[in-house]
Hints:
By secondary structure, chain A is α+β, with helices and mostly antiparallel strands. Chain A contains 16 helices and twelve strands. Chain A has a six-stranded mixed β-barrel, surrounded by four helices. Chain A has a two-stranded antiparallel ribbon with strand order 11-12. In chain A, a hairpin with a 5-residue loop joins β6 and β7 (195-204). Chain B contains eight helices and ten strands. The longest helix of chain B has 18 residues, at 177-194. The radius of gyration of chain B is 18 Å and the shape is globular.
Amino acid sequence: MIRLAFTIAMSHLLSRRRQTLVSLLGVTLGVAFFLAVSSLMQGSDNDFIKRLVDNSPHVTVYDEFRHVRPQPAHLLFPEAAVEIRSVKPRTEVRGIRQYKEKLALIADFAGVRVAPVLVGQAIVTFAGKDLGATINGVVPDLMLRVSTIDEHFVAGSLETLASNPSGIVIGTGLADKFGVRMGKNLTVTSPVGVVRTMKIVGLFRTGNAAYDDGQAFVLLKRSQELLNRPNIANRLILKLEDPDLSPSVASAVETAVGYKSQSWQEASQDLMSLLKVRRIMMYSVVGAILIVASFGIYNVISTVVLEKTRDIAIMKSIGFHARDVLVIFLIEGATVGIAGSLFGTGLGFAMMLGLSRVEVKTPFNTEPTSLPLDWGLFPVALGIGFAMAASLAAAFLPARKGASVHPVDILRGAA
Amino acid sequence: MTPILRTEGLTRVLPGVIPVTLVEGIELQIARGEFVAVMGPSGSGKSSLLYLLGLLDVPTSGKIWLNGRDTAGAGEDALANIRLKELGFVFQFHFLLAEFTALENVLLPIRRLGTLSERAARAKGLQLLESVGLSDHASKYPSQLSGGQRQRVAIARALANDPSVILADEPTGALDTRASGSLRDNFQELAHGKHCSIVAVTHDPSFAKAADRILFLVDGKLQPPDRAAELFNMSAR
Lengths: 415, 237
């Protein structure tokens, strides 16, 4: 029966060649634009996430706890109503206790690289000008394994710190504010009053103004001395081979070391939500193109149903079932949908190829970059699925009308 | 001998503010291989009776037996299956599908039934076209055929699944005298040669004369044989 229904459906579509072509063109363009736009949007999302993932730690262990530690009285009497008054917290040195052991523990996790950091605030002075900066005490060779900062150096490198214990690496933003270049000495004053003179051994430019204006790198030992926190690190930075595993690794690390461990997804929840909203908006807009295209299919099949009412009556009098008639018209919608999807996919890929050759110059890249595109199959599957759903939905209404034709009403009228 | 088609108290009333009775209390028996003509003035319910007998319409009351089977209460799909296997229709205006050739039109019911292979179906379709003298016109489209030829294609299509009964509604209505005569011969051959029962609604007395029996409908009611003969003689004058 399907073969016969297909033959009849084709004869209907070919009898309205021009209208069929117009509706086919609608679906083709709809699918093509759906692919090109969603590929561009998905590509930019992926690019954004890649930059986010590459330029920030996958997991960060902080010197704080996710939940306030319970008082011993609460632990002793879990069912009782305990009231504790005049609690005086013990003054503790902030930081991750025994960080070297914890570092070794985390380093044993499969596919994980880890580096310690002591982060603190300091005043940087040059020629009577004072500016606040965040001092990151790092172990250069470990830091280079978990960070992409070396890709952003415009002069010197992080490794230079190892051979210059009094060296400091600053961003070009901070350097410009002071009007200094490589080799100049800066005075660094910590909140605990320690003052050190440090020589600029590296300059970086990430393109993030806040980062370039306010971050500085020194040796971990130097920052411990500067901040008067010997043998302390207050951050452990983790880089994973598979960034998607960050939430589970963060959870495992938190269980193992006790300190708050935050994955990049948790740290960027607002951005991820924004991307999600942006994706929903994009699919809504691009999907609307296909909905408009489906009106073309509705139009052609409605016309065929109207024109072929007598044929439907004849077929039913011969012995065709109502569902046979429904299937015939649904095949017409599906045929336009399938053909439109195929042509649209071809055209969409051609458009994507064209877009991939468009070169854009950004202020932070000397070389022109191409538009980020996603060549994954998901948008193709989604576009085809959407086109088919829209085509079948558009065909269903007139098909149902055709299937409900009462042959006697038509034959009586025709006679 | 069991009749191939039998009705009992067949009535069809169109509902509405003023209900319209199309046919009323039809008692009818058609034997196998019998050629029956149904006559009557316009609006007397001839076509309505044919649609009821063809299971295209559902009676308000009364019953229809086809091959001894009570068709009352059968669902839409079951009725469609009966039409496909046991009934054949020929209408006043050929009603062929314009996008299909003569052979493809004849093949429609065979393909829908789906019991024959494509090769066997085509062979049968060609044989049917040959039986109505159109073997040379198999690949022609309806627009390339004359009125009489189209009607003969419609007969071939009606015979496609070897039905027990052919129902024809004014089959000669759009034909000239020569084509009408040829069609009349075809029907006689079908009834007496192939034992296919034929119920044909007609206004044409010369066509009706070829039938084994003439029924006459007036205001939806079947007239007794004496009255029918009288009315036929009046119409033939």
